[in-house]
User: Fold these one by one.
Assistant:
Number 1:
Amino acid sequence: MLWQVDPSADAPLYEQLAASVRAEMAAGRLARGERLPSAKEVAAALDVNLHTVLRAYQLLRDEGLIELRRGRGAVVVAERPPEQARLTELLTELRYEARRLGLTDHDLATLILEGRTP
Amino acid sequence: MLWQVDPSADAPLYEQLAASVRAEMAAGRLARGERLPSAKEVAAALDVNLHTVLRAYQLLRDEGLIELRRGRGAVVVAERPPEQARLTELLTELRYEARRLGLTDHDLATLILEGRTP
DNA sequence: ACCTATTTGTCCGTATGTATG
DNA sequence: CCATACATACGGACAAATAGG
């Protein structure tokens, strides 16, 4: 996988790590559904702290690039969906509340995609 | 400011802290430009670790609600009408739940636009 | 201009919890 | 049951930016 970090660089280590993964994905060397090495392995290989790798992974998750699950590891985002009871509940309530305020589904979708709240 | 955390609760401490701040803002008790107490103060007052508070603050920053600067502290950026408090709350929870399930914002937007629930 | 205290940012370490396989 | 792997929380240390004297 040949990632690398430079402790003397300007960018923080976790950002360098995340950038490495992004580059791999952009270059097509990491396909959907593929599993990333465990944070522990990466930490040992690059001689950085486990938390630093986990932070990079969580950043990538927040960006929607990978999926993290306990005991399973990090997987390049593919298709899902598992059990989503809570999500369904929230979606229903959100639609209700949005309508009450006169917002359309399109408005909602826009809000979410723009990553902001009204 | 009367925030509170419950170590035995289901939600993680940093999420509880962030929720407290969101509630303050939604209720209009935290206006734009106002400064939040320093992470150190909050940590001491609630008897939680400094890093836990910083994580909550960074989460709120990622949500665009506050601005963080070294030596300066946390300042409220956003301002939202009280009548939209519930919608904001639901949106935030929905994003949290979706992320937990590995869903992206794009997935969420699609779900809403397609008018279905997973 | 200088120094100091404050405050967040990052990194490391350790421990424990929880879901997965 | 057991090993793996991420999640959270605690702690310590130092760096960097800011504010104030």
Number 2:
Amino acid sequence: MELSKQPAETLQRSISLLGGGGPAELAIRQAAWVARCVGHGDAAPFTPDDLSALAASLRTTTFERGSVVFRAGDEADGVWIVRSGRLELSVGAGSKRAVVHVIGPGAVDGDIQYLLGMPLPYTAHALADTTVLFLDGESFEGLLGNRLAIARRWLTSVAMRLAESQERIIGMLGRSLTEQIARILLEEAVDGAVPLPQRTLAAMLGVQRPSLNKTLKEFERNGLIKVRYGAIDLLDVDRLTEMSG
Amino acid sequence: MELSKQPAETLQRSISLLGGGGPAELAIRQAAWVARCVGHGDAAPFTPDDLSALAASLRTTTFERGSVVFRAGDEADGVWIVRSGRLELSVGAGSKRAVVHVIGPGAVDGDIQYLLGMPLPYTAHALADTTVLFLDGESFEGLLGNRLAIARRWLTSVAMRLAESQERIIGMLGRSLTEQIARILLEEAVDGAVPLPQRTLAAMLGVQRPSLNKTLKEFERNGLIKVRYGAIDLLDVDRLTEMSG
DNA sequence: GGGATCGTGTCAGTTCGCTGGCACGGCGGC
DNA sequence: GCCGCCGTGCCAGCGAACTGACACGATCCC
């Protein structure tokens, strides 16, 4: 299902149709985009030199909707950065399937497992046609080991993910299903709508779909949301926030 | 309840009763201990220079059992490292209390919130008399910004915590209470026993104590564990592992 | 336009955990 | 040695979520 795996130059050529500028400039633009995604720059701004080192190592890959980017148990051999589209990170299958996370543009993954030398704990499915930047392990290690700004910023990036993960644990412990559902709707909303089927939402909370559906219909009766095919519109964010505890 | 907050030299003097060697050497020994706790050294060994920079900034504080190290909502003004004892990180109170984590010697906390400039999301209670090393924010920032090895190792440390946190989420989603209990007993065991009251264990899983107690007694009837006052002995680790899914 | 696929809506029976309350027994302080 | 505190053990009634199944509607591919 993998459509292409090629040097960044190829992508840059296709981007150049939109943006203008030469390939080299566009490689830098790509790297600058990644730089904006990794941490924030208050503490450690990237130098142009950092950026070109990063640009030289990024490779672009495209995945069709439904295809697998990596599988649970695979060795992590580098870092993935979602450029466009969405990936579902999940464990198990059938009624035991649990969705750990749904990540979109700007999200970074695989670095943790690479750094720790552990296999990937979940499988990544593309929920839509998705473009992914890949930074191979050796280059990653080289950037971290030689460039302080990059190591410093990457630390912030991982810290943000840890804070988010802890917040999710706090949000799950001892909460009623209703509270958890209100919370996840707010978290997963993009432009006022949650573009996920109920089955996926249920798997993110570790509950069965009928339980989720029951609460969603109740929310809908109260005018909080509108349930559509494969998506949910949020109509009253304030009251949802209030309900999420 | 805070008993003392003083330069590291004071602690070193008390350590010297046990270990021998001058104060300066002992400050280094303290820092070396921290270095072993933060990440592991495969990728970035600490230089003696790194160690003395770290040693110069560590301050020792002691907390009595039951006292509060920091409260939810406090600004994180540095990094805590548990030297001995145990801290319970929890949110809420009464029947809504949720225990996010119980941390022991070698654990690092507060750095995430410091780096991200966010308030601490949980309160830390000392479960036993506890000694904590404190690294103030400015020194921490200075170490990260100037010393690549420290930034690199700290990245590994945070990565380990993120991997652990994700594993916990995976272990909670869609698992039966029995599986979750088997899992948490294995995770929290120290020397074949879990030194926590059932109330705390229940708060770590976000369930009520009677629900936990029922399953524990069932485990005990099957010879998996022995329930004691304020602690649980693990008798059959293999079968518990099997039950944890 | 027709069929396959996927997602939603719903149900009845069952299991499971919660509520809150009380009795008992270690453990520590006085 | 006594008392108070804290932790454990347990129960009955209730409510909530699970199981697994089925009907229907939307969407997509041919």
